[in-house]
Amino acid sequence: MNPRGANSRQTVSPFDFPESGDGAGSAPQILRQAGQREVFCGLTGIVWLHRKIQDAFFLVVGSRTCAHLLQSAAGVMIFAEPRFATAIIDERDLAGMADALDELDRVAARLLRYRPNIKMLFLVGSCPSEVIKLDLSRAAARLSRQFAGQVRVLHYSGSGIETTFTQGEDACLASLVPAMPDAPGRSPATLLVVGALADIVEDQFRRLFDEIGVGPVHFLPPRNAGSLPPVGPDTRYLLAQPFLSATSLALDERGAKRLEAPFPLGAEGTTAWFRAAAAAWGIGADKVDAATASKAARARRGMARYREDLAGRSVFFFPDSQLEIPIARFLVREMGMHAVEVGTPYLQRHHMAPEMALLPPDTRYSEGQDVERQLDRCRDAQPDITVCGLGLANPLESEGLTTKWSIELLFTPIQGYEQASDLAELFARPLVRRMKLAA
Ligand code: SF4
């Protein structure tokens, strides 16, 4: 199976239809699409998650295609000890000639004996394991009992059948939530920042929360298996990534309360994000501004040189990472760009409301995908830059459009003040390159 092709499918309705407003004329018009999609699968998340949780191992239960996807996406070096691998389901398993779960037990036990430094093992489902209905929850429970006290074994699905690539992180974090310890009763409120961030960004955020007076602060995912943060009714959580709906639901079920905020992208989004946390602690915006003003000003100075390249330009988003709406808000409001269409695989209305409130009311959103129709709209618009997945980028480049791979937004630290100019540069670079080539 092709990692991209595996997600290309037709669904029942070939029709596009604009969602009606709320009758008051205030709701944005959203084009709902149900057709062929071009996205990567959730296994891709392992590429950044295995770097984040430093004593975890991701064992994909999948096919050779899954193994190729991971190896090429993560760039494995043969002399390194990678913290992910694929247990390949072969023809004997598919034909029912072998008990795949027994084999999985053997593979996992061998791995854990050989690598005693692994403290958390994720069994990651794939399209093939879902098709043959391999019950990884039972396998995880059995292995957890076998290795009790040594390794925590969890499971989630990274299958491309129903997911887009950032949902792999969502499924992984959601699988961690039941394993989080209960916050002790009558404890002071704690802040939980949810979503994988580069360590350097996490450190910057922690220092700023300290300065503002918000805390104690924990991060999910943690840097190691032994640091799973506590959760309970006194937990307030802030999403650092916009694609965590399953994780958010799981945290809600544990009694935690989500703080509504735009995402910490660009100077404006980062300030609003900190203000939301501060407000929950009864701290005013003035104190946040005092702690962040110099950083925000430095971020604006850094972004200014890229604004020269980006202001007045148009951008078109194909649905891929679920970061599209916050990034569009950043490009429109801080870089002076015009968003032709903001496509997103799924529109999480509750999570996106603060972002959509900041975008112009006539912004055209699309949810889901019917790739041929969307390509037609993109060609008609001839945007200055098109944000899309790898599979669409090369064909569009060959047609003369300038593209930006959305997956780069996950592999590059882009959150917070210090990274705001790097985020702007990600979009300015391909435009400048195109101009130089044209010259
Ligand atoms: S999980 Fe599915 S889409 Fe992803 S690489 Fe494996 S077979 Fe392909």
Describe the structure.
- The chain is α/β, with parallel strands linked by helices and 439 residues long.
- The protein contains 17 helices and 15 strands.
- The protein has helices at residues 46-52, 64-74, 91-94, 100-114, 127-131, 136-146, 167-176, 199-212, 245-253, 266-280, 285-310, 324-333, 349-356, 371-381, 390-398, 408-411, 420-438; strands at residues 17-18, 30-34, 56-62, 84-88, 120-125, 152-157, 190-194, 217-220, 235-239, 257-258, 314-317, 338-344, 365-369, 385-388, 403-405.
- The protein has a seven-stranded mixed sheet, with helices on both faces. It has a four-stranded parallel sheet with strand order 4-3-5-6, sandwiched between helices. A four-stranded parallel sheet has the order 8-7-9-10, with helices on both faces.
- Bound molecules: iron/sulfur cluster.
Q: Which spans have pLDDT < 50 for at least 5 consecutive residues?
A: 1-25
Percent strand: 15-25%
The first-level CATH class of one domain is given as Alpha Beta
Number of helices: 17
Ligands bound, unique: iron/sulfur cluster
Radius of gyration over all CA atoms, rounded? 22 Å
Output the keywords.
Rossmann fold, 7-stranded mixed β-sheet, 4-stranded parallel β-sheet, 15 strands, disordered N terminus, binds iron/sulfur cluster
Task: Give the topology.
Layout: E1 17-18, E2 30-34, H1 46-52, E3 56-62, H2 64-74, E4 84-88, H3 91-94, H4 100-114, E5 120-125, H5 127-131, H6 136-146, E6 152-157, H7 167-176, E7 190-194, H8 199-212, E8 217-220, E9 235-239, H9 245-253, E10 257-258, H10 266-280, H11 285-310, E11 314-317, H12 324-333, E12 338-344, H13 349-356, E13 365-369, H14 371-381, E14 385-388, H15 390-398, E15 403-405, H16 408-411, H17 420-438
Parallel strand pairs: 2-13, 3-4, 3-5, 5-6, 7-8, 7-9, 9-10, 11-12, 11-14, 12-13, 14-15
Antiparallel strand pairs: 1-2
The structure holds iron/sulfur cluster.
